[in-house]
Amino acid sequence: MKDRGIRSLAYIAIAAQVAFVASWIVAGAVTPGYSHARSGVSALAAHGMPHPWIAMAGLVVLGVSSAALAPGIARVLPSRPATIAAVALLAVAGVAFVVAAFARLDCDLGSHACSARFRAGDLSWHTTLHVWMGPLIALALIGSAVAIGRALWPSPTAALAVGAAIDGVVVFLVAWLLYGSTDAPGGIVDRVQLMVAQAWFVILAAGVLYGTRGKRRFADPVPLRPRDFFGSAWAGEGQVQVWPYSVSRRFGPRFTFTRSTTWKSDDVGVVQDRATFGNGRVEERLRFAHIVSPSRIHVSSDDLPDGLDITIDEAGYRTAPYRGLVPVGPLRFILRCRDETQLDADGTLTYRVYARWCGLPVGRLDMRGRPVEQTPMPPAETGAEQPS
Asked: Which residues contact 209 (CB under 8 A, 6 or more apart)?
């Protein structure tokens, strides 16, 4: 299956979690006398309920979401036996949810009368089958976490997967003990278990989306040699604009800036950025430029969690999209940033940064700079200079 289809299935799996929660909320609202705290979700689909199809549809959707993640997990995990096991266990959990949807309870097990009939063996095999789907689903999902951890071992992600499996075991055992207590709110226990399973589905879907993300699209090339860009001190002016830009263009705070680079070795330089705003506030950033290869420079700093990659070719240099950390009081927001740079005929560099948060435009940074001083770059044999 192509990555586009796999990503679509991952998005469907995430949407299914919202649909499932909506199903039992709606079904409970249209069922007279139903208690979310006392009765489980499955009771809404029991025989005698006025609208059983709503809860049944919700359980089917949940099962489909589990199975929909299987192709994506097979795509992003290494080709190992543990990967096959993880895919199979997710499929098993999906089938079990669907079986639970159609193997309807004879009555609401949250009531003492129905529970007593079940313990006495007076209910149909449909109820027994439905009840046993719960442990099967729990074990399948816990097993999928263990299998994913094994497939990724050794790595930090593998440790997190194993930790998720341990958490699942704890939730399962605590729920098992609470179900044996007559005073426990069975409906709440049931929903906590389901929400833990749903959280696992969302985590898996996010992992699939991350693993199948497209290649980073570098900005258009800037016809400027890296020797001229990193080997010069720059000065200029800029403005911070928030979205919508047509409004903030008139009121956005303006600043002047300087940038200089000091090379500490043949392949490592320290870039110092200083911005002075109209009210006198000064912001300074210290970045490190590392010449990784003749065609790539990596820039790192405290406000760039993943750093910034710059590629070099015959057309000049290109910057990749990156993540920027923006402090707002005690909070820290991570924005997705994309640069657009243009070199004017007089040597002025027009620099624009677009920032998004959760896919939504939040602001941009406009700057115009000019070289004011030449500072030595490493020798050309290090690969820092390429023809433009």
From this structure: 7, 10, 11
Any idea how long the chain is? 388
- How far is the C-alpha of 103 from the C-alpha of 134, rounded, in Å? 12
Kindly tell me the burial class for residue 42, based on how many C-beta atoms sit within 10 Å of its own C-beta (0-12, 13-18, 19 or more): buried
CB 282 within 8 A of CB 258: no
Domain positions in the chain are 3-211, 226-382
User: Beta strands 316-319 and 304-313: pairing type?
Assistant: antiparallel
Residue 43 makes CB contacts below 8 A (sequence gap 6+) with 34, 49, 105, 108, 109, 110
CB count in 10 Å sphere of residue 131? 16
**DSSP state at residue 69:** H
Indicate the Cα dihedral angle 196, 200, 201, 204, nearest 10°.
170
The CA-CA-CA angle for residues 35, 37, 41, to 5°, reads 75
CA distances from 172 to 116, 168, 178, 193, 233 (A): 23, 6, 10, 7, 62
Which tokens in the block code for residue 143?
A: 């097993």
Tokens 């993880």 belong to which residue? 86
- The dihedral built from the CA positions of residue 80, 84, 87 and 90, taken in this order, carries a sign that is negative
For residues 221, 225, 230, 235, the Cα torsion angle rounded to the nearest 10 degrees is -80
Q: DSSP string of 171-230?
A: HHHHHHHHHT-TTS-HHHHHHHHHHHHHHHHHHHHHHHHHHTPPPP-PPPPBSS-HHHHH
The pLDDT tens digits of the residues spanning 255-312 come to 999 988 888 887 888 889 999 988 888 989 899 988 888 788 899 998 899 999 888 8
C-alpha span between 301 and 1 (Å, rounded) = 39
Mapping DSSP to helix (H, G, I), strand (E, B) and coil, where does residue 235 land? strand
**Entry pTM:** 0.67
Cβ count within 10 A of residue 125:
8
The CATH T-level fold of domain 226-382 is Lipocalin (2.40.128)
Neighbour count for residue 116 (Cβ, 10 Å): 10
Hey, what are 69's tokens? 């993640």
Residue 32 is given by DSSP the state T
Tell me the pLDDT tens digit for each residue of 96-138.
999 999 999 999 888 888 888 888 888 999 999 999 999 999 9
* Cα–Cα dist 378/225, whole Å: 13
